[in-house]
Amino acid sequence: MSNKPNRVRVLQVNLGRGRVAHDIAYAVACERNIDVIVISEPNKKLSSTPGYIADQNQNVAIYVKNKNAGIISSFSGDGFVCLQWKEWCIFGCYCSPNVNFEAFKSFTDNLMWAVKNTNLDTSTKYPAGYFKPATNKPAFPGTMEGS
C-alpha cells in the first residue's frame, strides 16, 4: 500500500512574520489534514528549520507537513518557491505591497519565466501567495481600483 495521498491538500496563508500565527496555521493544518502550507511573510527563524523550503529572502516559504505527499523536487527564486509533483507544481509567491510598480513588474516577469520554464510535461501549474503593488494606477483602465 502506498503512503502517497490521492490528493494533496494545500493551505495558503500570510502570517506577517508572527510566531503565534505559525502555531495557529499549523494547528489548522493538523485539524484539516493539510499536506502543504504555502506561507507569505513567514517567521524567518522558523522558515529556516527543517521541513520549510524558503526563497532567498525568506519572504515566502512552503512547509511540507506530510513527508509522503509525493513531492519529487523543489526550487526557489527571488520571491517564489516551487514544489513539483509528477504531473503538477505549486508556486508559493510573495511580493511586498511596498515595492514600486517597476519592481513589481520585474517580480512578475521573473515569476512568469520560472512558471513557463518549469521542467514538466504538463501545463498544470498553480501560483499561490500574495503579490499586489502599492500604486495609484487602476488595476484595469476605466476602474477606480488601486491602493
Largest sheet: 4 strands, mixed
What are the secondary-structure elements, in order, as H or E? Answer: EHEEEEEEHE
CATH topology: Deoxyribonuclease I, Chain A
Radius of gyration: 16 Å
Let me know the average pLDDT.
84
| Global geometry | globular
Helical amount among residues, as a percent range? Answer: 10-25%
Strand share of the residues?
Answer: 25-35%
The side-by-side strand order for the widest beta sheet comes to 1-2-4-3
The CATH architecture would be: 4-Layer Sandwich
- Runs in which pLDDT lies below 50 for 5 or more consecutive residues are 1-5, 143-147
What's the total helix number? Answer: 2
Record field, number of beta strands: 8
> What structural category characterises the helix and strand content?
alpha/beta
CATH class category label: Alpha Beta
Termini gap:
52 Å
* CATH level-four homologous superfamily name: Endonuclease/exonuclease/phosphatase
Count of all domains: 1
Summed up:
With 147 residues, the chain is α/β, with parallel strands linked by helices. The protein is built from 2 helices and 8 strands.
Secondary structure: elements and pairs:
Elements: E1 10-14, H1 19-31, E2 36-40, E3 52-54, E4 60-64, E5 73-77, E6 80-84, E7 89-95, H2 101-116, E8 125-131
InterPro entries: Endo/exonu/phosph_ase_sf
Report on the architecture of this protein.
The chain is of the alpha/beta class and about 150 residues long. It is globular, with a radius of gyration of 16 Å. Residues about 1-5 and about 145 have low confidence and may be disordered. The protein has a 4-stranded mixed beta sheet with strand order 1-2-4-3, covered by helices on one side. It has one domain: 4-Layer Sandwich (Deoxyribonuclease I, Chain A). It is built from 2 helices and 8 strands, in the order E-H-E-E-E-E-E-E-H-E. A hairpin with a 4-residue loop joins strand 6 (about 80-85) and strand 7. Helices cover about 20% and strands about 30% of the residues.
